[in-house]
Amino acid sequence: MFNQKLEGKVILITGASSGIGEAAARLLAEKGARVLLGARRLDRLKQLTEEIRSAGGTADCAKLDVTDARSMEEFVGYAEQQFGRVDVIVNNAGVMPLSNLEERKIDEWNRMIDVNIRGVLHGIAAGLPVMQRQGGGQFVNVASIGAYSVTPTAAVYCATKYAVKAISEGLRMETGREIRVTLVSPGVTESELADSISDEHARAAMREYRRIALPAQAIAEAILYAVSQPEGVDVNELVVRPAKGGE
Question: To 10 degrees, the CA torsion angle through 208, 209, 211, 212?
Fold first, then answer.
């Protein structure tokens, strides 16, 4: 049985104000991690931070825009300043405004590329030098089952998640044993992602699709599993789907 006590590991989580990010923050702090939470909604982060502290955990927060490389650099730098090191970065922030390509929602396509791909790359660019100096660390990149197959209205979204999968594999191959890399790919999960869908057809399809959805806690447990492994064990990919009737 693996040890779920994280013994003071410093874990940074992007997109931490709701959904998977929030659930992961609560669970990892409960298990002993020192968590730094990042997102655009600072009011939500502050409330979550206080709740974690009230429950006996160690947490701090900072406003973060993952599409801005400098914002990510400052986020990682703040973690070093506050905690002295960076053990894990959970690149979780994502958006999912689905639509058919013929709708030509170019601004939404660009937003997905900026958050879902550049956001992960910015996290890697900011964290990698720190982990290399330390002689170790771990990236947990949250993708989707959309990284494995494409569905109508989700062509661009799936493309961004395919990219996250490719980036994660490339990073794993380049860093070797020094830095661990985990790809976590959730199936349909309760979150605010669907709130960003402006296309009526895609929004209705997503409501039907989400009739059976995993709680965010299930994905938090997968992240906990990956970051709790002993030295020398690198969990490369975790795909987590609903047990019945879901993708």
Answer: 170
Check pLDDT > 90 for residue 205: no
Catalytic residue among 148, 157, 162, 225: 157
Which pLDDT tens digit goes with each residue over 113-140? 999 999 999 999 999 999 999 999 999 9
Task: State which amino acid sits at residue 94.
Answer: G
Q: Which domain holds residue 123?
A: 10-94+115-143+161-186+215-231
Nearest CA among 225, 221, 222, 218 for reference residue 242: 218
Number of residues written out for the chain: 247
Q: What is the DSSP string of 55-110?
A: TT-EEEEEE--TT-HHHHHHHHHHHHHHHS---EEEE---------GGG--HHHHH
Which of these, 101, 103, 25, lies nearest to 57 by C-alpha position? Answer: 25
Would you say the C-alpha torsion 13, 60, 28, 216 has a positive or negative sign?
Answer: negative
More confident residue, 29 or 209: 29
Q: In the prediction, which pLDDT does 196 show?
A: 56
Q: Are 134 and 174 in contact (CB under 8 A)?
A: no
Is 157 known to be catalytic? Answer: yes
Alpha-carbon span 178 to 76, nearest angstrom = 19
244 in a domain, yes or no? no
Residue 225 lies in a domain: yes
